[in-house]
Amino acid sequence: MRVGAFLLSAQFPGQSHAEALERTLSATTAAERCGLDSVWLAEHHFVPYGVCPDAATLAALLLGRTRRIGVGTAVSVLSTGHPVRLGEQAALLHLTSGGRFTLGVGRGGPWIDLTVFGTGPDAYEQGFPERLDLLLRWLREGRVGAAGPQFQFPEVAVVPRATEPVLPADPGGHEGLAGWLGLDGEPEAALRAFPRQRHEQGPHRRAAGTGPRPAAGPGGPPVVVACTSPGGVRTAAERGLPMLLGMHSGDEDKAQMLAAYRTAWRAAGRGEEQLARVEREHVAAGVVQVDDRAAGARDELLRALPGFFAHGLGAHRTVDDRARSMRDPRAYTELLCDLHPVGTPRQCADRLLATAERTGIRRFALLTEGSGDRAATLHNIARLGAEVLPQLG
Q: For residue range 338-387, what is the model confidence (pLDDT) as tens digits?
């Protein structure tokens, strides 16, 4: 099983944008230190629900500050950006990070973003498949042109090419100044620690509780697709891409979506051996809160998340002032506590193992910042790594 941290860069009431972003940076270095497999970065515009407007840009910074952990976008929104531009970013991050970058994409929502960026409602309502196909061609081919309803341009060279073999990491183990600063943020302490770190860890040492990351090679960065509807499931299956399933989905919902995925996969004429490989790459988003008492973990989320949801989700503005409904913040928090690993370390491990057994999903992106507090978030990540991961086998 592979467990990662899902980082919204959430601005809780009373916090600044800088505080929300700094919590994401600290959480990433903590996640690597504690043995998590990956971090997943959200992307939002104009709302405090998440103050990162470009997940790929933030991923670049975090890849530079780390040396082992995977970094993925959850998601980069295709409805408001150009697929070629995103493809260029993804190729750059893939080639320069030793293959540690995963590109998660989705169509986003019917928000005012579509007006601000000039793509319009059609890009969200009908345009996602064309945008995804153009992105995939850019990541897989050497020259690309377009003649579709949304994009028309003559064939051009793909530079840099994501399909080129990824170069191995520096065998000397040098991480660069950004990596040193990622140790604790203090240049002097980082420089003092550097010779000892190289001697004790070596260039290929892995954090405890994680298996080896697959060797990066030709083929470009992995791509996953956020799926919240039957159409999204079909789109992913027809293109042979794994799914990213949302936090609101319980095990039964996940199982139904996986069944629909298999049906669409086979209808597209794809083989069973490849299906088995791709199904190992599905990712389930969720929430995690570890405490000595189950009630304590639940109370922490019920204290912080309802106000955040009201503050953040309530700020969304639709593209054409169409009507929208919003979940009750407290009821939604209670639902998340019921669905996901919230409780003692044993209860959290049992919840993840039960989901894996019922659905076959073995990859998780878990929201670790539900308390809204920086120190509590880092403590939550530390307990996830030290007390939950070892119980997952």
A: 999 999 999 999 999 999 999 999 999 999 999 999 999 999 999 999 99
Facing residues of 343 across strands?
A: 290
Nearest in space to 308 (alpha carbons), one of 7, 6, 13, 9: 13
In which band, very low, low, confident or very high, does the pLDDT at 170 lie, cut at 50, 70 and 90?
low
3-class DSSP state of 235: helix
- Exposure string of 157-187, with b = 16+ CB inside 10 Å and e = fewer, is ebeebbbeebeebeeebebeeebbbbbeeee
Q: Which residues lie across from 283 on neighbouring strands?
A: 244, 363
> Residue 35 contacts by C-beta under 8 Å, 6 or more apart in sequence?
207, 208, 209, 210, 385, 389
Compute the distance between CA of residue 178 and CA of residue 367 in angstroms, rounded to an integer: 25
Residue 335 host element (H or E): helix 329-339
**Count of Cβ atoms closer than 10 Å to residue 386 Cβ:** 15
Residue 48 tokens, joined: 């405090």
Residue with tokens 């770190």: 197
**Under 8 Å CB-to-CB from 110, ≥6 apart: which residues?**
121, 124, 125, 318, 319, 320, 322, 324
- Look up the pTM and report it: 0.89
Whether the CB-CB separation of 387 and 1 falls below 8 Å is answered with no
